[in-house]
Write a structure and sequence with these properties.
Elements lengths: L2 H36 L15 H11 L10 H17 L9 E4 L2 E4 L8 H22 L3 H32 L4 H6 L12 H14 L11 H4 L9 H26 L8 H7 L2 H27 L7 H30 L1
Antiparallel strand pairs: 1-2
Helix pairs in contact: 1-9, 1-11, 2-9, 3-4, 3-9, 4-5, 5-7, 5-12, 7-9, 7-12, 9-11, 10-11
Length: 343
């Protein structure tokens, strides 16, 4: 393994990490702007033009706030909880193909930190570990409201992971691969999977809301019942990690939705652009197209949050176990019949 390859991959990893952090940071600004627009308010407009420096001001505020630790016998786990939540939120970005490739100084640079054959399985594995960050944090807080919130979050995420996994089986039956890169390549020329798997896409989208604890599935954080949820006892940057992890998860889940069902970085006429304009220009435009799709889904998350009220917890469980799971199983059966009939 030559040193140029190591440097190349290091630059890609650092760039992906930085983009994920920036997108998550400015999603907080976009959340407040979208909420203000939907509620006929102005929103943040003091720090920088249009409030663009507000995320930096919020970050500095969290760093400067006093650290508070509850009287808990599990101080180590109290620190580990937000670290797990933040780490798992960032780890999933490693296997996402942000574009095809670029020609730089005579080298072909793949716009993906690592391309593994089981990328989708890796994403699901990391997401599953993320529940430990919430559960440990709520349990170690020595607070009954935090513990109740953690139990809610754990049962919610485990329940909806079943439906999400089943919705993926139908897609994998069609694509025949777990590689996100190959799934993106198969959708070239507007051959998007959403046209063949609309039910699977709908199930995955609903489950993504539940996995990221977004309204109407924010039962783990509802202030009217549980004060502030599993991070009630957290302050300063430990609380900031939990809040930041939510927006990072939202960004990553939007990227996965765009890649699995909406062609990822592919766009109509991409091959013509490669042949007539150049690989770099065509693929840079592909990166821009992917981020437009991601931003649309992030906006959709925010739109739903400020439009629909949260469910009751029994409604949440009913939807997951009695509606989405049976529907995803029916979708698998129908997909199998269609593959056999039209093969």
């Amino acid at each position: 393994m030559d040193s140029a390859f190591i440097i190349e991959k290091s630059v890609v990893i650092v760039t992906v990490f930085a983009i994920t952090m920036i997108m998550a940071m400015y999603s907080t600004w976009a959340e407040r702007k979208v909420a203000a627009y939907l509620q006929d308010r102005v929103g943040p407009n003091r720090a920088g033009w249009g409030g663009l420096l507000q995320p930096l001001a919020d970050g500095m505020k969290l760093f400067a706030k006093e650290e508070f630790e509850p009287n808990t016998p599990n101080k180590f786990l109290f620190f580990v909880g937000p670290a797990i939540a933040m780490s798992t939120a960032l780890m999933t970005s490693a296997v996402i193909p942000w574009g095809d490739q670029l020609e730089i100084f005579g080298r072909t640079v793949e716009l993906q930190a690592t391309d593994v054959d089981v990328a989708l399985l890796y994403v699901f594995g990391v997401i599953s570990v993320g529940v430990y960050g919430i559960m440990i944090g709520g349990w170690a807080s020595n607070n009954k409201f935090s513990l109740m919130s953690a139990v809610r979050a754990a049962s919610q995420m485990v329940s909806y992971e079943v439906a999400m996994g089943l919705s993926m089986i139908a897609l994998l039956m069609m694509t025949g691969t777990l590689s996100l890169k190959e799934i993106s390549e198969q959708q070239a020329g507007m051959n998007w999977n959403v046209f063949y798997q609309p039910v699977g896409f709908l199930i995955f989208l609903i489950c993504a809301f539940a996995e990221t604890n977004r309204t109407p599935f924010d039962l783990a954080e509802c202030e009217s019942e549980l004060i502030g949820g599993y991070h009630t006892e957290y302050s300063s940057m430990k609380m900031g990690f939990y809040l930041f992890a939510e927006y990072a998860n939202m960004f990553i889940s939007s990227a996965i939705l765009a890649i699995l069902y909406f062609g990822g970085y592919n766009y109509p006429g991409m091959q013509w652009m490669i042949d007539n304009v150049g690989v770099n220009t065509a693929n840079l435009l592909g990166i821009a197209v992917l981020f437009i799709k991601i931003c649309f889904f992030i906006f959709f998350y925010m739109w739903v949050r400020w439009t629909i009220p949260r469910f009751r917890y029994d409604q949440l469980m009913h939807l997951g176990w009695k509606v989405l799971i049976p529907l995803s199983i029916v979708n698998i059966v129908i997909t199998g019949i269609c593959i056999l009939a039209f093969k």
